[in-house]
Target: Multidrug-efflux transporter
Amino acid sequence: MAINDQQIAPGRGLGAEARALVSLGLPLVGSHLAQMAITTSDALMLGWYDVTALAGVSLAGPVYFCLFIVGSGFAWAVMPMVASAASVDDHRQVRRATRMGLWLSVIFGIVATFPLLFFEELFLSIGQDPEVSRIAGLYMAVAGVGLTPALIVMVMKSYLSALEMTRIILLVTIGAAVLNVLLNYALIFGNFGAPELGVVGAALASIVGHVISMVALCAYALWKTPQYDLFRNFWRPDWEAIGRVFQLGWPIGLTNLAEVGLFAASSVMMGWVGTIALAAHGIALQIASLTFMVHLGVSQALTVRVGRAWGRGEPDRVRVTGLAGLMLSAGAVTLTMILFLTVPEVLVGVFVDPDDPDRPAILIAGAALLAVAALFQTVDALQVLALGMLRGVQDTRVPMLYAAFSYWVVGVPASYVLGLHTPLGGTGVWLGLTIGLALAGILLQGRFWRRQLAVGALPAG
Model:
């Protein structure tokens, strides 16, 4: 059971607030790892099925994810708005924010689905292999049907997280991961009497998973939170609320896109460095992504806890919550640094065939990248925690500008210069990423703490 505000005395210290963050954040960390398991199982099973199919989905997947991550901005906006409203028992505002978050997500999903039908021609126009382009376009066209339910799932996850009901999110995501593996096995390969559909089967499995998750989370919300009467008058537009969700959500979506684009650009630059560097980069990034889920979970918990304190106009509690989040993340960073610096070859070796002739070179390159990742994780944690805290006080537009500047004006050029114009090679690309993320962390943390130290009292949300 999550620790709520009534269970913690008003004068509580860092320890109690840290426990509240752990109770709220651990299921979120687990759900993120389960979500990663879904994409990993897709890649593994398509790789077993056909290399060309895997290449097609590898081409389409990042484009689909970019659309999804932009549309998710409206869902992420729901989290601090609901947390602040719920902290003062404003049932009407909880309902309005969630309902209009659903509206915007559905509108975005429908609008974004239409262009997905024509991506085969786009991939061909940028010089991709015709067969890979055909498979990628087919996958996009089918998977696009699942974009709207996937975005609705994100809204419901934000709503339930804001009310500190995160265990159900973990359970539903684990269930979706298991279901995805079973449906992939049936629909990709033609097992259990199902037709052999290849990439179409993988796309259909994803759609089914999104729809079932959507139904499960909506049903749980109706069952467990009847006081909010969530879907009452759902068809009626609420222009004031839709404006507030939109203003808070579109900068979050673009911030997410800027960060995803940063790592996509780093992969392109690694390809220019060489095949070994690109392979090591992919492995090291996968490992770093796993450990990053801890900080992302803490960041989302901070959004909720800071949002609740901000909604009640309690600046001291906002500051204590922020410090508790930093303390938890610092502990995770310390463990990660020890792991990355002491056994990097073991971690990288898990991803490389023992008989692969390039294994020694990949292990050396991957170990070097994980050494940089020990520092990289520290600054990455700082920036994602700051984003979570700033979203809790419903501050998203200036943070978007800070992040875009740090990632693209500083980080990408630094990676390009250090990676391609110095002997550092792939290590230089990662050092450039570290510089960009460090600047983002400094700017964003500075904005949060300056604002909190400057106020004597915060306005209610």
Notes: Confidence is low (pLDDT under 50) at residues 1-11, 456-461. The radius of gyration is 22 Å. DSSP finds 15 helices and no strands in the chain. Residues 407 and 436 are 5 Å apart (CA to CA).
